[in-house]
Structure formats: structure tokens, C-alpha cells
Design goal:
The chain is mainly beta and about 90 residues long. Strands 1-2-4-3 form a 4-stranded antiparallel beta sheet, covered by helices on one side. The longest helix is centred in the last third of the chain and has 11 residues. The protein starts with a strand and ends with a strand. It is globular.
Length: about 90
Amino acid sequence: RRQRQMCIRDRAHTLTLAISDNGIGIPASEQSKIFDKFYRGNNIPDRNIPGIGLGLSYVRLLTEAHHGTITLTSQPGKGTTFVLCFPQ
């Protein structure tokens, strides 16, 4: 079963939001593309899962609009963690 975790920290004038899951992970070769509009990963096990590849591009745009940053760490078969940092 896929699990998600969220952690929020407020330190040194920076709000950090970390979101993790233990899903299928994102291959290193695709990590630079996942924030592009309409991009969907090639390792999705079920192509019937709805989506058009806009979610993460919107997250990046909103994060940057607030002068923040977004990074990720991921390992195929282990899961993914996204970290959003916003200045306060």
C-alpha cells in the first residue's frame, strides 16, 4: 500500500514543506523533465491512471511565484520526496 508523509518546518526565515511517498519512484533520467508541462513518466505501471501532466508544472510555477524552490530525491521502487522551501 502506498503511503504518504508530510513535514512542515519553520526555521531561519524559511518555511520548508517536505512530502514523501513510498511509490514507484522516478528514474534519474526523468527527474529533470517531471516539472515540464504535459510530461508524464514512462515508468507508470498503469497508463489508465488519469492525468495530463500539469500538476507538477503548476506546483513549480506557484513555488517560484512565491520566490521559493522545489527539489526532489527519488529512487525507483523506493519512493520520492519533494522539498519546497519558501522565504518568509
